[in-house]
Every structure is written in structure tokens, then in C-alpha cells.
Specification:
Blueprint: E1 9-13, E2 16-23, H1 25-35, H2 37-55, H3 60-72, H4 76-88, H5 93-100, H6 102-105, E3 122-126, E4 136-142, E5 155-161, E6 168-172, E7 181-184, E8 189-194, H7 196-199, H8 210-220, H9 224-233, E9 240-245, E10 250-255, E11 261-262, E12 271-274, H10 296-309, H11 316-323, E13 337-344, E14 349-353, E15 361-363, H12 365-369
Parallel strand pairs: 2-5
Antiparallel strand pairs: 1-2, 3-4, 3-12, 4-13, 5-6, 6-7, 7-8, 8-9, 9-10, 10-11, 13-14, 14-15
Helix pairs in contact: 1-4, 2-5, 3-5, 4-5
């Protein structure tokens, strides 16, 4: 008889890999390392050895110190996940810590191809009068443009912990034990944007990293109200804008290191657009300089305009076209958009794209989020 822990497997959709993992956190890590060891080693060679140490010129000692500092306040569940990976992947634990901290390692670095010093992501959710059917959430994940090369190994990883946590899927690069984009078995979707233009660059290194906390939030949140309670109870280590959604509505949280506020001033019911600055007026903050902060105001206004133009007709196909519209063409996508995700929480589906590398690929993530006793998850 095949047990849940033995049923972990790897499935390919277009250019993307889905990992479906079962067991304890250590066991899921071991299966992760065994199933995508080649992708982990390839990503380590390209991103750590090639880009971080080579192109960026960061010293190994300095990089290892950052990786250890990032790991120091990690939740035990994710420590176990990383330990399991290192037992089967062919990389040692120190290499896994570097891979896990990749996006933190390069934060603040200036790269010749981008001229930017921080990430700038974009999100748009439509429902009600703006959608032609169910709620749809589209997001651009933006970072340094060389991350697009890592997109060939982009993973959708579905975790089925045997500790009673909710099954949860993450989208990200191999070896990352955290969440910037994810959805759980109850259809709660979450996406993180940088919030530095309004929240500042202050960082607390004695707090659990917010991107690890967000993973815990989805593992433990059966609905948006529960997720909001976690947001309201947790201090972030850096400034972020967090977009969330279920099949009925979207909520946006503006999360600096000193407070958190859910946007309550909504002029367009059925539409949520998140870039990198806070728009809840109760903060009393001035609008940030647009050019200095990656055109956060322009990207937001462009998406508001597109949503108004296509109001009532936005389906997944239309959302793909909206996300494919570049900044210079009055959209929000730039050379630093390294991958894109569209989520439909009601049907538990995702669509993924790496610009200039893959086409849009639809992934029935709900089939994988189902527990094994609810039916087979093979496509």
C-alpha cells in the first residue's frame, strides 16, 4: 500500500514543475531535495556562484553571514524543511541556506542592467462589477531582470503537512523556504509587494522574516478573517504591501515595521490595485517620488485605468492581456517583471508566465491541494 508520504511526486506543466509533497516537514524536505535536486544545483550554480559571487562580487563570508542571519529567526517547521532538502539534494546545508536567502542577499545591491535598488511588484484583483465572472487576482513579481533566467526552474510547491496544517502551495525559485505568492486548500490567495516607498527601508533582524510568517499564515488560515487576525497580530521585519483574496473579495494590508493597516478607503468596489506605496489615507503620508521608486504611482494608475476600460469584461484571458501590457504602453509590466501569476480562488487555478521565456501556462493547483482521500491529483 502506498502511503501519503510515499505519494510525493513531481509533475510538469509546460515549462513549470509542480511538486506535490506529503509528510512531516523533514520528510517533505527530503522528497523536495530528491525530486528536484538537479534544479536546486543548477539554480545554486547560476544564482549563487554565477551571479551573487561572480557578477555582484559579494564575498562568501559576507553572504554566509546574511544567510545565517536570515535563518536565525526561522520557524521550526521551515528549519525542518531546509534540513530535509540538504539530506537528499546533493547540496550541503550551508549551500541551502545561501539558496534560501538568495532574494535577501541581493536586496540593496545595484545591478548594471536595472539601476534599481529594490523590488517593485504589482497586483490587481477584480470581482463584482469589474469581473465577467469569478474573482481574479493578477500579479507581476518584479526583481532584477537576470532572475528571468532562473524562471526555467520556477516551482509550484504544494505542501501537505501531516501536522494538521492546511495544504498550501507556494510559487517561487528552488530552495526557497518562504512565501511571496501562495494559495491554500481553502482558496485563500496571498501576494507580497515591496512597501519601501511609504514604509521606509528600516529592517529588523531580530524578528521572524515576514516572508516566512506569510507561509505560516496560509498554513493556519481557513478564511480571510483569520488571516487578517494574523496580520493584525504580527510585526513585520520590513515594509510590505500584502494583497489577499478568496473567491468573494480582496483585501490589501499595508505593513510597515511599526504598524499594519487594512485599506478601508475604497473608491471602486470590486477592484483592488497594489503597487509599492500605501494608499490608505489615514496614514497621512505624502505620495512618494514616482521616478525614484520604480514608477509605483504610474503603475497603479495604469492598472486602474485598464480596469475601468475593461470593466465588466475581465476574465482570465483579459487579465493575461492586462499583465502583458508594458509600462510604456500604459500597463505595469517592465524589464524587471521576472514572472507573473494569475489566481482564480474560486476554481483553485493558477496561470504562470516568465516573460520572454514561457507562454502563459494554466495549472489546476486545486487538484494538487486536495487531500489524497478526496481523489487523485494527477492531471
Amino acid at each position: 500500500m502506498t502511503t501519503e508520504r510515499e505519494s510525493s511526486r513531481r509533475v510538469t506543466f509546460g515549462g513549470f514543475t509542480v511538486l506535490n509533497l506529503y509528510g512531516t516537514w523533514r520528510e517533505m524536505g527530503r522528497r523536495y531535495g530528491a525530486l528536484v535536486g538537479d534544479q536546486l544545483k543548477e539554480t545554486y550554480a547560476a544564482a549563487i556562484e554565477g551571479s551573487l559571487f561572480g557578477v555582484c562580487g559579494k564575498g562568501r563570508d559576507a553572504a554566509e553571514a546574511v544567510a545565517l542571519g536570515f535563518y536565525a529567526n526561522y520557524p521550526h517547521r521551515l528549519r525542518e524543511l531546509l534540513a530535509g532538502m540538504s539530506e537528499t539534494s546533493g547540496l550541503d546545508f550551508g549551500q541551502h541556506l545561501l539558496l534560501n536567502a538568495l532574494e535577501v542577499e541581493v536586496a540593496g545591491e545595484i545591478w548594471a542592467d536595472s539601476g534599481m535598488t529594490q523590488a517593485h511588484c504589482t497586483g490587481i484583483a477584480v470581482w463584482g462589477e469589474y469581473s465577467s465572472g469569478p474573482l481574479i487576482y493578477g500579479r507581476n513579481y518584479d526583481y532584477f531582470s537576470w532572475f528571468r533566467e532562473l524562471g526555467k526552474n520556477l516551482l509550484v510547491t504544494v505542501y501537505h503537512p501531516c501536522d494538521g496544517s492546511l495544504a498550501t502551495a507556494t510559487v517561487g525559485y528552488p530552495g526557497g523556504a518562504y512565501m511571496t505568492t501562495g494559495i491554500n486548500e481553502r482558496g485563500i490567495f496571498l501576494a507580497l509587494n515591496n512597501g519601501e516607498p511609504s514604509g521606509g527601508a528600516l529592517e529588523y533582524r531580530n524578528r521572524v522574516p515576514a516572508i516566512a510568517e506569510l507561509f505560516m499564515f496560509l498554513l493556519d488560515s481557513p478564511d480571510l478573517d483569520q488571516l487578517e487576525s494574523f496580520m493584525q497580530s504580527t510585526r513585520s521585519n520590513f515594509a510590505y504591501v500584502i494583497g489577499t483574496a478568496d473567491d468573494q473579495t480582496s483585501r490589501c494590508f499595508e505593513w510597515p515595521v511599526f504598524d499594519v493597516k487594512r485599506r478601508l478607503s475604497v473608491k471602486r468596489p470590486g477592484l483592488m490595485v497594489a503597487t509599492n506605496h500605501f494608499t490608505e489615507p489615514s496614514w497621512g503620508l505624502p505620495r512618494p517620488d514616482d521616478a525614484k521608486f520604480s514608477w509605483t504611482r504610474t503603475r497603479r494608475q495604469n492598472l486602474l485605468n485598464l480596469a475601468e476600460h475593461f470593466k465588466g469584461s475581465i476574465d482570465v484571458a483579459r487579465m493575461k492581456k492586462i499583465l502583458d501590457t508594458r509600462l510604456k504602453d500604459l500597463g505595469a509590466t517592465t524589464d524587471n517583471t521576472v514572472y507573473q501569476v494569475i489566481a482564480v480562488p474560486g476554481s483553485m487555478s493558477l496561470s504562470l508566465k516568465v516573460p520572454e521565456l514561457t507562454d502563459w501556462t494554466d495549472i489546476p493547483v486545486g487538484d494538487f491541494l486536495r487531500r489524497s482521500d478526496e481523489g487523485d491529483a494527477r492531471p
